[in-house]
Amino acid sequence: MPSSPSVSLLIPTHNNARTIGETIDSCSNQTFRDLEIIIYDEESKDATRDIIHAAAARDSRIRVLTSETNSGPLRAWRKLLYEARGHYCTWVWSDDLIMPRYVEVLHGALEKNPSHLLAGCNAYRYYYPTDPNIPVPKANLDQPHPEWELLNELYPTAKIKGDAYALGIFAKVYPVTQMCNLFKTSAVKEVFDNYIQLENPFGFDYSRMAYGNDVAFLSELGLRSGELVQVGDPLVVARSTPTSLTERLIKKDRWQYWLQYTWAFYYGWSRCRSLSPRMDKLISLALDRVHFCNIPYGLKNRLWPKHGNPFRAARALWFILRHDRHFKKDAGPDSMEAYLSQRT
Fold first, then answer.
1. What distance separates the 2 farthest-apart alpha carbons in the chain?
2. Is the per-residue pLDDT at 344 higher than 90?
3. What is the pLDDT of residues 278-328, one digit of tens each?
4. What secondary structure does DSSP assign to 32-79, as a single string?
5. Contact yes or no for 44/15 (Cβ under 8 A)
6. What is the overall mean pLDDT for the chain?
7. What sign does the CA torsion over 197, 200, 206, 211 have?
């Protein structure tokens, strides 16, 4: 294995025996070969370690790290980041898959644009059975299944400004997961620690309940990049069970989930005020949505809203109905840029 591969694929694991083998295979079978695969397992009690050690024995590009304690997701991701030797890197979640040309396409976009700090893509998604006794059906990555959904509605491949990308995440034009992006490793190391724990007035522990860290992190990288390429093709397969941690939180307290994400936008964008002359517009949008989400969250949990201005909440709803892809199906790169170009 080269001492300095071009790309590092970083896989965190914890009790993922049902899916980790297929995840590793999707990384090993990339058309782009100059890469390393680093797997970091924390405290697995199932067969995960047997599977990852067997994979490392088959492929010299795989390196395995383990820990007998569980530090939580963000610190596990950080451990992997600082082990990465590649010029570019990304995290690959241990129940997800990457398409065979994932690295080839995104690496190519970054090599053609050497000032860019990240390049992204769309994703497929589907659910596999919750019952651990039912094997997870093997995915055919050479022929995507017609029942796989798109994680985000179709959008065109485009080179966009960093602030329009941040708004595109906010408006559900682009995916929010780190896995849908390939990053310049040196830039990630400058930004990642800013978003392990996000100060907030609600008592949310972002280091353990990692909902929103990704959008703040992605926004800052996009803003630092100035512009970046987003590829419309789905190059990731996001898989989960109907009872995954995220699905359970959404069913139990949807408004906590959305409030955590919305506060992360506000927190991250506030840190980045100097990175674009249009940041005040973005920060105001995020704060409006904090007010919108905090009212139902407070009512559900019998808490007085810390941010509950009805005028700001109404403005947030107006933006959602007019510009967010949940409702505005033709929202895309052009509409994000058009919104930011409007006079305040």
1. 60
2. no
3. 999 999 999 999 999 999 999 999 999 999 999 999 999 999 999 999 999
4. --SEEEEEEEES--SSHHHHHHHHHHH-TTEEEEEESS---HHHHHHH
5. yes
6. 94
7. negative
Fold assignment, 1-95: Spore Coat Polysaccharide Biosynthesis Protein SpsA; Chain A (3.90.550)
Residue type, 123: A
Question: Within 13 A of 290's CA, how many CA atoms are on the CB side?
Answer: 20
Domain ranges of the chain: 1-95, 155-231+241-341
Q: Between these two residues, 4 and 266, which has the higher pLDDT value?
A: 266
End-to-end CA distance of the chain: 54
> What region does 226 belong to: left with phi over 0, alpha with psi -120 to 50, or beta?
left
Can you name the residues that pair with 13 across neighbouring β-strands? Answer: 41
Helix (H) or strand (E) holding 342: none
DSSP helix/strand/coil, 219: helix
Non-local CB neighbours of 284 within 8 Å, separated by 6+ positions: none
What separation in angstroms does the CA of 298 have from each of 14, 204, 274, 308, 315? 33, 14, 32, 9, 19
Phi–psi pair at 63, nearest 5 degrees = -125, 135
In tens, the pLDDT along 69-116 reads 999 899 999 999 999 999 999 999 999 999 999 999 999 999 999 999
Q: How far apart are alpha carbons 283 and 25 in whole angstroms?
A: 41
Q: Which of 81, 84, 105 has its CA nearest to residue 32?
A: 105
pLDDT-derived band at 131 (thresholds 50, 70, 90) equals confident
Alpha helix (H) residue ranges in 171-244: 185-191, 213-225
**Among candidates 317, 337, 342, which has minimal Cα distance to 168?**
337
Residue 303, SS3?
coil
Please give the single-letter amino acid code of residue 93.
W
**Rounded (to 5) percent helix, strand, coil in the chain:** 45, 20, 40
Cα 16 from Cα 80, distance rounded (Å): 17
